[in-house]
Inverse folding.
């Protein structure tokens, strides 16, 4: 989760749902909720019923023949024959259908085989001792089965928790990564859930190592719909209250919640009040509805957030979410919504320094780039370096590799040729293997590649390097193959960093050689004029946002989606029949209103 009160010390992550920065559903239903429990209790398997059930008298005559045949067969001295005779003549009692079924499954078992082969005295002794053992009832057998399942689930959950929330080092109490006071505070841990007891159990595991627990009620993705959590709980306000209130009463740390707006202001206000009554200390509101995602994401409704700010008690702490593309949007959002802070999700993924202040002019150093027009941003090669250095130092427990200073125009360029030769020699064997073997082979799981600290790196780098890999597809291919590196996954990312540094250096040299015209040509191709930031209504066109945020591809910058009407015009989305009919009716009504206005105006003029 990333939040800012205007000038936070450092960025953090939110619930964007990157595949790898995705929240895990904490929902294992209690044993009593299983639909199989009632079925098994009222209609248990015949094999689970006690062997002393009442006999079926109607089958007595047919069983007599079976018993006689068994007695005759007992004349044979084979252990199998003795076993069958012992089972058939057990106490001389007639067998019911259920007993015969039990006999069929017990024939050949080690216990009955030993009983038959051990002689009459041994058989009698074993029979007497067996009377002391009572077979479990259907309920007892079911409880034992569920206990085994629960034990296996708990073991798996414990392993998952230790892997995905690493507050202390394995086998010790030493602070390690998550919630480490020296580097990872303040920390909010976010959960998705639809079961209060399961949520509480998980929250208690992280409470000692965090500053608050957040309930994510805003996730609109398909996985949330299938799992019935996130934004797909908003129709069940009682459950939402129960989830938050349970944590509020039982946890030693505050509880916060994130929601999305509903169809109307009134419904959204009541939703927010319900969350606050349940005990949420901070309310984060995403100014989009649940269906606003993908090509129909559109703009967040800051006016709705301002309405909540005005209607809720003044002491309510509200964080705003949505439409924050770059650092300058933070202050605009705070002013427009009246919120106390800003949360960023996708903007933080594509520009992890979104909350960092730009250095003064003339003090950019090597990590920050500023163009001839005065606009700038943090370089992607610098941010990739920082990312990998964090992995080396904190995850792998080793000092980062020795690195040369980041390139600036005017530096020696001999290293670029050496880096390209090294990259080419590393890629050549891989191409030969693909031609020889018919394709790359996926490596098996390893402790490095299975670590969530490393498995999420590829997705993060795709966000950060989106504009670079769109132009330089060779780097994109390297990044695509990086997850197949197994134990060498960190070395693969170091190779990607080396390639990124070369590409950025080439881009900087080209910019200097052309006097900035190489980038100006890209802006001209966007349209909307050669100099401004774009004109027109931002609700109708994304061009203004694109021109405002566009930087050279070596600078971290947001990924801006087309607006729904633009996606519709490009064919990226299509209207359903119902939507087409509604649009046709709206157009017809608009034309009728226009005709009536024209007639009225004509009458007034005459």
């Amino acid at each position: 989760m990333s939040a800012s009160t205007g000038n936070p010390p450092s960025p953090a992550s939110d619930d964007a749902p990157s595949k790898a920065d995705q929240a895990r559903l904490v929902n294992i239903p209690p044993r009593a909720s299983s639909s199989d429990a009632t079925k098994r209790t009222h209609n248990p398997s015949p094999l689970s019923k006690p062997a002393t059930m009442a006999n079926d008298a109607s089958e007595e005559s047919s069983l007599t023949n079976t018993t006689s045949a068994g007695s005759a067969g007992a004349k044979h001295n084979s252990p199998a024959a003795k076993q069958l005779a012992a089972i058939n003549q057990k106490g001389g009692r007639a067998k019911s259908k259920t007993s015969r079924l039990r006999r069929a499954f017990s024939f050949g078992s080690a216990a009955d085989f030993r009983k038959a082969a051990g002689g009459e005295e041994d058989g009698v002794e074993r029979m007497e001792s067996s009377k002391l053992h009572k077979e479990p009832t259907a309920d007892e057998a079911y409880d034992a089965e569920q206990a085994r399942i629960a034990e296996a689930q708990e073991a798996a959950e414990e392993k998952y928790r230790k892997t995905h929330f690493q507050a202390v080092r394995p086998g010790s109490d030493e602070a390690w990564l998550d919630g480490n006071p020296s580097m990872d505070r303040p920390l909010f841990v976010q959960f998705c859930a639809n079961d209060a007891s399961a949520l509480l159990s998980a929250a208690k595991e992280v409470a000692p190592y965090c500053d608050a627990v957040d309930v994510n009620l805003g996730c609109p993705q398909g996985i949330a719909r299938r799992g019935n959590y996130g934004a797909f709980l908003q129709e069940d306000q009682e459950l939402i209250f129960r989830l938050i209130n349970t944590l509020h009463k039982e946890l030693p740390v505050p509880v916060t919640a994130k929601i999305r707006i509903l169809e109307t202001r009134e419904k959204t206000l009541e939703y927010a009040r319900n969350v606050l009554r349940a005990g949420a200390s901070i309310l984060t509101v995403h100014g989009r509805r649940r269906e606003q995602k993908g090509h129909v994401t559109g703009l967040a409704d800051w006016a709705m957030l301002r309405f909540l700010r005005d209607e809720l008690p003044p002491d309510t702490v509200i964080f705003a979410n949505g439409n924050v593309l770059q650092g300058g949007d933070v202050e605009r959002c705070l002013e427009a919504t009246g919120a106390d802070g800003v949360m960023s999700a996708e903007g933080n993924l594509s520009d992890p320094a979104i909350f960092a202040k730009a250095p003064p002019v003339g003090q950019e150093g090597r990590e920050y780039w500023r163009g001839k027009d005065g606009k700038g941003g943090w370089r992607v090669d610098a941010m990739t370096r920082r990312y990998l250095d964090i992995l080396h130092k904190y995850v792998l427990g080793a000092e980062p590799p020795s690195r040369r200073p980041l390139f600036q125009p005017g530096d020696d360029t001999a290293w670029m040729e050496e880096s390209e030769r090294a990259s080419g020699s590393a890629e050549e064997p891989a191409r030969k293997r693909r031609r020889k073997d018919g394709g790359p082979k996926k490596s098996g799981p390893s402790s490095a590649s299975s670590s969530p600290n490393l498995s999420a790196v590829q997705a993060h780098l795709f966000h950060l390097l989106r504009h670079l890999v769109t132009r330089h597809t060779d780097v994109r291919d390297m990044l695509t193959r990086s997850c197949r590196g197994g134990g060498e996954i960190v070395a693969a990312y170091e190779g990607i960093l080396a390639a990124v540094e070369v590409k950025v250096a080439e881009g900087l040299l080209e910019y200097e050689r052309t006097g900035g015209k190489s980038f100006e040509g890209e802006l001209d191709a966007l349209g909307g004029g050669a100099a401004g930031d774009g004109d027109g209504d931002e609700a109708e066109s994304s061009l203004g946002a694109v021109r405002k945020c566009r930087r050279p591809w070596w600078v971290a910058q947001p990924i801006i989606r087309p607006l729904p009407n633009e996606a519709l015009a490009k064919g990226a989305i299509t209207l359903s029949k119902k939507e087409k009919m509604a649009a046709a009716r709206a157009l017809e009504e608009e034309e009728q209103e226009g005709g009536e206005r024209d007639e009225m105006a004509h009458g007034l003029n005459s």
